[in-house]
Amino acid sequence: MSNTCVEEDPVLERNFHGHRDTVTAVDFHPSTCQVVSSSLDASIMLWNYEQQQRAFRLMGHKEPVLDVQFSPSGQLIASGSRDRTIRLWVPAIKGESETFKAHMGTVRSVHFSPDGQQLVTGSDDKAIKLWVVNRHKFQFSLTEHKNWVRCVRFSPDGRLLASASDDRTVRVWDTRTQCCVHTFHEAKGFSHHVAFHPDGMCVAAAGSDNAVKVYDVRSRSLLQHYAMHSAPVNKVSFHPSGNFLLSASHDGTLRVFDLLEGRPYYTLHGHRGPVTAAAFARDGHHFASGGTDEQLFVWRTNFDREMTASSSGNVIPKLETGTESRRPDVDCSQLADERRDEELPPESESDTTGPPAARGGRLSAGAGAGGASGGGEMAEIRSMVSGLMQQMELVTQTVLLMEERLKLAEDKLCEVDGRKE
After folding, report:
1. Nearest alpha carbon to residue 234 among 246, 243, 223, 221
2. pTM for this predicted structure
Protein backbone atom coordinates (compact mmCIF):
# COMPACT_ATOMS: atom_id res chain seq x y z
CA MET A 1 0.00 0.00 0.00
CA SER A 2 1.47 3.38 -0.98
CA ASN A 3 1.35 6.49 1.17
CA THR A 4 2.22 10.12 0.65
CA CYS A 5 5.77 11.19 1.54
CA VAL A 6 5.82 13.13 4.78
CA GLU A 7 8.01 16.18 5.27
CA GLU A 8 10.74 14.24 7.06
CA ASP A 9 11.22 11.71 4.26
CA PRO A 10 13.83 12.15 1.49
CA VAL A 11 12.26 13.48 -1.71
CA LEU A 12 13.49 13.04 -5.27
CA GLU A 13 13.78 16.60 -6.59
CA ARG A 14 15.71 16.37 -9.86
CA ASN A 15 16.48 13.69 -12.41
CA PHE A 16 19.35 14.43 -14.82
CA HIS A 17 19.92 12.22 -17.85
CA GLY A 18 22.82 12.91 -20.22
CA HIS A 19 25.49 10.28 -19.65
CA ARG A 20 25.76 7.41 -22.09
CA ASP A 21 27.11 4.85 -19.62
CA THR A 22 27.35 4.12 -15.88
CA VAL A 23 27.73 7.13 -13.56
CA THR A 24 30.85 6.49 -11.46
CA ALA A 25 31.02 9.49 -9.08
CA VAL A 26 29.10 12.64 -8.09
CA ASP A 27 29.97 15.77 -6.13
CA PHE A 28 28.26 19.06 -5.27
CA HIS A 29 29.61 22.55 -5.78
CA PRO A 30 30.25 24.10 -2.33
CA SER A 31 27.26 26.42 -2.88
CA THR A 32 25.07 23.51 -4.12
CA CYS A 33 24.37 25.45 -7.33
CA GLN A 34 25.95 22.73 -9.48
CA VAL A 35 26.51 18.98 -9.47
CA VAL A 36 29.38 17.29 -11.30
CA SER A 37 29.36 13.64 -12.35
CA SER A 38 31.79 11.27 -14.06
CA SER A 39 31.01 8.25 -16.18
CA LEU A 40 32.31 5.21 -18.00
CA ASP A 41 31.43 7.11 -21.20
CA ALA A 42 34.74 9.02 -20.69
CA SER A 43 32.95 12.31 -20.00
CA ILE A 44 32.28 14.64 -17.10
CA MET A 45 28.89 16.34 -16.87
CA LEU A 46 28.46 19.69 -15.13
CA TRP A 47 24.81 20.09 -14.15
CA ASN A 48 23.27 23.39 -13.08
CA TYR A 49 20.65 22.94 -10.41
CA GLU A 50 18.55 25.78 -11.79
CA GLN A 51 16.38 24.41 -14.55
CA GLN A 52 16.86 27.45 -16.81
CA GLN A 53 20.64 26.96 -17.09
CA ARG A 54 22.17 24.42 -19.43
CA ALA A 55 24.41 21.53 -18.46
CA PHE A 56 27.76 20.93 -20.14
CA ARG A 57 29.75 17.89 -21.11
CA LEU A 58 33.50 18.12 -20.41
CA MET A 59 35.53 15.97 -22.79
CA GLY A 60 39.26 15.29 -22.55
CA HIS A 61 39.82 11.88 -21.03
CA LYS A 62 40.34 9.10 -23.57
CA GLU A 63 38.91 6.34 -21.41
CA PRO A 64 36.29 5.96 -18.61
CA VAL A 65 36.40 8.54 -15.82
CA LEU A 66 36.22 6.87 -12.41
CA ASP A 67 36.22 9.77 -9.93
CA VAL A 68 35.50 13.49 -9.90
CA GLN A 69 35.41 16.22 -7.24
CA PHE A 70 35.00 19.97 -6.82
CA SER A 71 37.74 21.86 -5.02
CA PRO A 72 36.68 23.47 -1.70
CA SER A 73 36.46 26.86 -3.44
CA GLY A 74 34.45 25.45 -6.35
CA GLN A 75 36.88 26.99 -8.85
CA LEU A 76 38.41 23.68 -9.98
CA ILE A 77 37.28 20.14 -10.71
CA ALA A 78 39.63 17.15 -10.45
CA SER A 79 39.06 13.88 -12.29
CA GLY A 80 40.82 10.53 -12.54
CA SER A 81 40.54 8.11 -15.43
CA ARG A 82 41.39 4.69 -16.76
CA ASP A 83 43.66 6.51 -19.25
CA ARG A 84 46.10 6.88 -16.29
CA THR A 85 45.79 10.67 -16.14
CA ILE A 86 44.50 13.22 -13.69
CA ARG A 87 42.86 16.35 -15.05
CA LEU A 88 42.16 19.70 -13.42
CA TRP A 89 39.22 21.50 -15.02
CA VAL A 90 37.93 25.04 -14.83
CA PRO A 91 34.15 24.54 -14.48
CA ALA A 92 33.11 26.68 -17.44
CA ILE A 93 31.59 26.28 -20.89
CA LYS A 94 34.95 25.81 -22.64
CA GLY A 95 35.93 22.96 -20.36
CA GLU A 96 39.64 23.82 -20.22
CA SER A 97 41.82 21.36 -18.34
CA GLU A 98 45.40 20.54 -17.44
CA THR A 99 46.78 17.02 -17.25
CA PHE A 100 48.89 15.27 -14.62
CA LYS A 101 50.69 12.12 -15.76
CA ALA A 102 52.33 10.18 -12.95
CA HIS A 103 50.52 6.89 -12.32
CA MET A 104 51.35 3.69 -14.16
CA GLY A 105 47.79 2.37 -13.89
CA THR A 106 44.15 3.41 -13.81
CA VAL A 107 43.49 6.42 -11.55
CA ARG A 108 40.51 5.42 -9.42
CA SER A 109 40.41 8.19 -6.85
CA VAL A 110 40.99 11.96 -6.60
CA HIS A 111 40.42 14.18 -3.55
CA PHE A 112 41.28 17.77 -2.63
CA SER A 113 42.67 18.69 0.78
CA PRO A 114 40.35 20.85 2.92
CA ASP A 115 42.30 24.00 2.03
CA GLY A 116 42.35 23.11 -1.67
CA GLN A 117 46.13 23.35 -1.86
CA GLN A 118 46.80 19.64 -2.28
CA LEU A 119 45.36 16.77 -4.29
CA VAL A 120 45.67 13.09 -3.39
CA THR A 121 45.23 10.31 -5.95
CA GLY A 122 44.97 6.51 -5.81
CA SER A 123 45.69 4.08 -8.62
CA ASP A 124 45.81 0.49 -9.83
CA ASP A 125 49.62 0.82 -9.67
CA LYS A 126 49.13 0.31 -5.88
CA ALA A 127 50.40 3.83 -5.14
CA ILE A 128 48.95 6.89 -3.43
CA LYS A 129 50.37 10.20 -4.66
CA LEU A 130 50.14 13.71 -3.21
CA TRP A 131 50.31 16.85 -5.36
CA VAL A 132 50.58 20.62 -4.88
CA VAL A 133 47.69 21.97 -6.93
CA ASN A 134 48.76 25.51 -7.86
CA ARG A 135 52.27 24.49 -8.94
CA HIS A 136 51.28 21.10 -10.40
CA LYS A 137 54.10 19.67 -8.34
CA PHE A 138 54.40 16.07 -7.15
CA GLN A 139 55.14 15.84 -3.40
CA PHE A 140 55.43 12.21 -2.36
CA SER A 141 54.12 8.71 -2.91
CA LEU A 142 52.80 6.10 -0.44
CA THR A 143 53.41 2.54 -1.58
CA GLU A 144 52.57 0.07 1.20
CA HIS A 145 49.40 -1.30 -0.41
CA LYS A 146 49.83 -4.69 -2.09
CA ASN A 147 47.01 -4.29 -4.62
CA TRP A 148 44.87 -1.68 -6.40
CA VAL A 149 44.05 1.46 -4.42
CA ARG A 150 40.32 1.96 -4.87
CA CYS A 151 39.86 5.13 -2.86
CA VAL A 152 41.84 7.66 -0.83
CA ARG A 153 40.44 10.59 1.16
CA PHE A 154 41.76 13.47 3.28
CA SER A 155 40.58 13.92 6.86
CA PRO A 156 38.66 17.17 7.58
CA ASP A 157 41.81 18.78 9.04
CA GLY A 158 44.04 17.50 6.23
CA ARG A 159 46.47 15.78 8.60
CA LEU A 160 45.40 12.20 7.83
CA LEU A 161 44.56 10.12 4.79
CA ALA A 162 42.36 7.03 4.63
CA SER A 163 42.76 4.56 1.77
CA ALA A 164 40.96 1.41 0.64
CA SER A 165 42.64 -1.30 -1.39
CA ASP A 166 41.99 -4.66 -2.98
CA ASP A 167 44.59 -6.07 -0.57
CA ARG A 168 41.71 -6.20 1.96
CA THR A 169 42.98 -3.34 4.10
CA VAL A 170 41.87 0.16 5.03
CA ARG A 171 44.92 2.20 5.95
CA VAL A 172 45.23 5.48 7.83
CA TRP A 173 48.24 7.68 6.96
CA ASP A 174 49.89 10.70 8.55
CA THR A 175 50.56 13.28 5.81
CA ARG A 176 53.34 14.92 7.85
CA THR A 177 55.43 11.81 8.50
CA GLN A 178 54.24 9.99 5.35
CA CYS A 179 53.77 6.86 7.47
CA CYS A 180 50.89 4.43 7.85
CA VAL A 181 49.68 4.90 11.43
CA HIS A 182 47.21 2.01 11.43
CA THR A 183 45.83 -0.73 9.20
CA PHE A 184 42.29 -2.11 9.49
CA HIS A 185 42.13 -5.62 8.05
CA GLU A 186 39.01 -6.78 6.23
CA ALA A 187 38.00 -10.31 7.18
CA LYS A 188 35.84 -10.75 4.09
CA GLY A 189 36.32 -9.01 0.77
CA PHE A 190 37.71 -5.51 0.38
CA SER A 191 36.46 -1.91 0.51
CA HIS A 192 35.40 0.00 -2.59
CA HIS A 193 35.25 3.41 -0.94
CA VAL A 194 36.10 5.23 2.31
CA ALA A 195 35.02 8.52 3.91
CA PHE A 196 36.03 10.44 7.03
CA HIS A 197 33.47 11.44 9.64
CA PRO A 198 33.20 15.27 9.89
CA ASP A 199 35.01 15.20 13.24
CA GLY A 200 37.90 13.26 11.67
CA MET A 201 37.81 10.53 14.31
CA CYS A 202 36.02 7.82 12.35
CA VAL A 203 36.28 6.28 8.90
CA ALA A 204 33.43 4.57 7.04
CA ALA A 205 34.15 1.84 4.50
CA ALA A 206 31.92 0.45 1.72
CA GLY A 207 32.58 -3.28 1.53
CA SER A 208 32.46 -5.83 -1.25
CA ASP A 209 31.06 -8.15 1.45
CA ASN A 210 27.75 -6.18 1.31
CA ALA A 211 28.53 -4.40 4.59
CA VAL A 212 29.14 -0.85 5.75
CA LYS A 213 31.72 -0.52 8.54
CA VAL A 214 32.64 2.44 10.73
CA TYR A 215 36.12 2.38 12.30
CA ASP A 216 37.38 4.50 15.21
CA VAL A 217 40.74 6.04 14.28
CA ARG A 218 41.67 6.81 17.90
CA SER A 219 40.93 3.43 19.49
CA ARG A 220 41.77 1.60 16.24
CA SER A 221 38.67 -0.55 16.53
CA LEU A 222 35.47 -1.37 14.68
CA LEU A 223 32.64 0.82 15.97
CA GLN A 224 29.66 -0.14 13.85
CA HIS A 225 28.88 -2.83 11.32
CA TYR A 226 25.81 -2.68 9.07
CA ALA A 227 25.10 -5.80 7.02
CA MET A 228 21.88 -4.46 5.51
CA HIS A 229 22.64 -4.52 1.77
CA SER A 230 22.20 -7.67 -0.31
CA ALA A 231 25.05 -6.86 -2.73
CA PRO A 232 28.43 -5.05 -2.63
CA VAL A 233 28.43 -1.47 -1.35
CA ASN A 234 29.98 0.99 -3.80
CA LYS A 235 29.98 4.37 -2.02
CA VAL A 236 29.58 5.92 1.44
CA SER A 237 29.11 9.55 2.45
CA PHE A 238 28.69 11.21 5.85
CA HIS A 239 26.08 13.89 6.42
CA PRO A 240 27.84 17.16 7.44
CA SER A 241 26.24 16.92 10.89
CA GLY A 242 27.96 13.57 11.41
CA ASN A 243 24.67 12.01 12.49
CA PHE A 244 23.84 10.12 9.31
CA LEU A 245 25.67 7.92 6.80
CA LEU A 246 24.60 7.36 3.20
CA SER A 247 25.48 4.18 1.27
CA ALA A 248 24.98 3.13 -2.36
CA SER A 249 24.89 -0.51 -3.37
CA HIS A 250 24.84 -2.91 -6.29
CA ASP A 251 21.49 -4.14 -4.93
CA GLY A 252 19.90 -1.03 -6.49
CA THR A 253 19.23 0.82 -3.24
CA LEU A 254 20.50 3.73 -1.22
CA ARG A 255 20.45 3.45 2.56
CA VAL A 256 20.63 6.10 5.24
CA PHE A 257 21.91 5.04 8.67
CA ASP A 258 21.29 6.88 11.93
CA LEU A 259 24.73 6.73 13.54
CA LEU A 260 23.68 8.00 16.96
CA GLU A 261 21.13 5.23 17.36
CA GLY A 262 23.22 2.72 15.42
CA ARG A 263 20.45 1.58 13.12
CA PRO A 264 19.24 1.86 9.50
CA TYR A 265 16.98 4.86 8.95
CA TYR A 266 15.80 4.80 5.32
CA THR A 267 15.97 2.57 2.27
CA LEU A 268 15.61 4.50 -0.99
CA HIS A 269 14.55 3.05 -4.34
CA GLY A 270 14.59 4.77 -7.70
CA HIS A 271 17.51 3.63 -9.82
CA ARG A 272 16.99 0.81 -12.26
CA GLY A 273 20.03 -1.32 -11.53
CA PRO A 274 23.11 -0.93 -9.30
CA VAL A 275 23.74 2.43 -7.60
CA THR A 276 27.38 3.30 -8.21
CA ALA A 277 27.69 6.88 -6.94
CA ALA A 278 26.39 8.87 -3.96
CA ALA A 279 27.35 11.99 -2.03
CA PHE A 280 25.87 14.55 0.37
CA ALA A 281 25.99 18.24 -0.46
CA ARG A 282 28.22 20.28 1.81
CA ASP A 283 25.22 21.96 3.46
CA GLY A 284 23.55 18.61 4.07
CA HIS A 285 20.19 19.62 2.58
CA HIS A 286 20.61 17.47 -0.54
CA PHE A 287 22.36 14.33 -1.70
CA ALA A 288 22.94 12.94 -5.19
CA SER A 289 23.11 9.42 -6.59
CA GLY A 290 24.04 7.84 -9.91
CA GLY A 291 23.88 4.35 -11.33
CA THR A 292 24.25 1.96 -14.20
CA ASP A 293 20.95 3.33 -15.55
CA GLU A 294 22.99 6.39 -16.66
CA GLN A 295 20.85 8.69 -14.51
CA LEU A 296 21.74 11.22 -11.84
CA PHE A 297 19.21 11.84 -9.07
CA VAL A 298 19.23 14.77 -6.64
CA TRP A 299 17.30 14.21 -3.41
CA ARG A 300 16.24 16.62 -0.67
CA THR A 301 17.13 15.14 2.71
CA ASN A 302 14.41 16.64 4.97
CA PHE A 303 15.34 14.18 7.73
CA ASP A 304 18.23 16.43 8.79
CA ARG A 305 15.66 18.88 10.16
CA GLU A 306 14.90 16.43 12.93
CA MET A 307 18.42 16.71 14.24
CA THR A 308 19.74 20.27 14.07
CA ALA A 309 22.46 19.90 16.70
CA SER A 310 25.99 19.86 15.38
CA SER A 311 28.09 16.72 15.56
CA SER A 312 30.53 18.21 18.06
CA GLY A 313 30.27 16.33 21.31
CA ASN A 314 28.20 13.54 19.81
CA VAL A 315 29.55 10.05 20.31
CA ILE A 316 28.80 7.27 17.86
CA PRO A 317 27.67 4.27 19.93
CA LYS A 318 30.08 1.36 19.86
CA LEU A 319 29.27 -1.92 18.13
CA GLU A 320 25.61 -1.06 17.66
CA THR A 321 23.78 -2.49 14.65
CA GLY A 322 20.17 -2.22 13.55
CA THR A 323 17.94 -4.85 12.02
CA GLU A 324 14.85 -2.78 11.18
CA SER A 325 14.39 0.69 9.75
CA ARG A 326 12.59 3.28 11.83
CA ARG A 327 10.75 4.45 8.74
CA PRO A 328 9.23 2.83 5.65
CA ASP A 329 11.19 2.42 2.44
CA VAL A 330 11.03 5.44 0.14
CA ASP A 331 10.28 4.29 -3.39
CA CYS A 332 10.61 6.95 -6.09
CA SER A 333 11.14 4.55 -8.97
CA GLN A 334 7.83 5.50 -10.55
CA LEU A 335 8.77 9.20 -10.61
CA ALA A 336 12.12 8.33 -12.19
CA ASP A 337 10.52 6.07 -14.80
CA GLU A 338 8.08 8.80 -15.84
CA ARG A 339 10.99 10.99 -16.93
CA ARG A 340 13.37 8.29 -18.06
CA ASP A 341 12.86 8.91 -21.79
CA GLU A 342 13.09 12.71 -21.76
CA GLU A 343 15.60 14.01 -24.27
CA LEU A 344 18.17 16.77 -23.94
CA PRO A 345 17.31 20.05 -25.69
CA PRO A 346 18.96 20.10 -29.14
CA GLU A 347 20.71 23.44 -28.66
CA SER A 348 22.96 22.08 -25.91
CA GLU A 349 25.30 19.12 -26.03
CA SER A 350 24.15 18.06 -22.58
CA ASP A 351 21.40 20.15 -21.05
CA THR A 352 19.49 19.33 -17.90
CA THR A 353 16.25 17.51 -18.45
CA GLY A 354 12.71 18.43 -17.62
CA PRO A 355 11.10 20.05 -14.58
CA PRO A 356 11.80 18.93 -11.03
CA ALA A 357 9.95 15.88 -9.84
CA ALA A 358 6.80 16.58 -7.91
CA ARG A 359 7.30 16.37 -4.20
CA GLY A 360 6.36 13.07 -2.64
CA GLY A 361 7.47 9.69 -3.90
CA ARG A 362 5.67 6.49 -3.11
CA LEU A 363 6.14 4.97 0.29
CA SER A 364 5.85 1.21 0.74
CA ALA A 365 5.27 0.05 4.28
CA GLY A 366 8.00 -2.10 5.83
CA ALA A 367 7.33 -5.82 6.12
CA GLY A 368 7.53 -5.85 9.87
CA ALA A 369 5.74 -2.59 10.55
CA GLY A 370 3.22 -2.07 13.31
CA GLY A 371 -0.01 -3.91 14.02
CA ALA A 372 -2.35 -4.12 17.00
CA SER A 373 -0.86 -5.05 20.34
CA GLY A 374 -1.31 -8.69 21.21
CA GLY A 375 -1.60 -8.43 24.98
CA GLY A 376 0.87 -9.38 27.69
CA GLU A 377 1.82 -12.72 26.16
CA MET A 378 2.72 -11.21 22.79
CA ALA A 379 4.65 -8.43 24.49
CA GLU A 380 6.68 -11.00 26.43
CA ILE A 381 7.45 -12.94 23.20
CA ARG A 382 8.54 -9.75 21.46
CA SER A 383 10.78 -8.91 24.38
CA MET A 384 12.40 -12.36 24.26
CA VAL A 385 12.95 -12.14 20.49
CA SER A 386 14.43 -8.66 20.84
CA GLY A 387 16.82 -9.92 23.52
CA LEU A 388 17.91 -12.83 21.34
CA MET A 389 18.49 -10.51 18.39
CA GLN A 390 20.71 -8.25 20.49
CA GLN A 391 22.71 -11.22 21.74
CA MET A 392 23.19 -12.49 18.19
CA GLU A 393 24.42 -9.07 17.07
CA LEU A 394 26.94 -8.95 19.91
CA VAL A 395 28.18 -12.46 19.04
CA THR A 396 28.56 -11.41 15.39
CA GLN A 397 30.59 -8.35 16.32
CA THR A 398 32.76 -10.40 18.70
CA VAL A 399 33.52 -12.91 15.93
CA LEU A 400 34.45 -10.08 13.56
CA LEU A 401 36.84 -8.59 16.12
CA MET A 402 38.41 -12.01 16.76
CA GLU A 403 38.91 -12.50 13.03
CA GLU A 404 40.62 -9.13 12.80
CA ARG A 405 42.92 -9.97 15.70
CA LEU A 406 43.76 -13.37 14.18
CA LYS A 407 44.64 -11.66 10.91
CA LEU A 408 46.97 -9.28 12.76
CA ALA A 409 48.61 -12.21 14.55
CA GLU A 410 49.12 -14.04 11.25
CA ASP A 411 50.74 -10.97 9.73
CA LYS A 412 53.12 -10.66 12.66
CA LEU A 413 54.07 -14.34 12.40
CA CYS A 414 54.79 -13.88 8.70
CA GLU A 415 57.04 -10.92 9.52
CA VAL A 416 58.92 -12.96 12.15
CA ASP A 417 59.38 -15.89 9.76
CA GLY A 418 60.65 -13.53 7.08
CA ARG A 419 63.25 -12.08 9.41
CA LYS A 420 64.47 -15.54 10.42
CA GLU A 421 65.01 -16.52 6.82
Report:
1. 246
2. 0.76
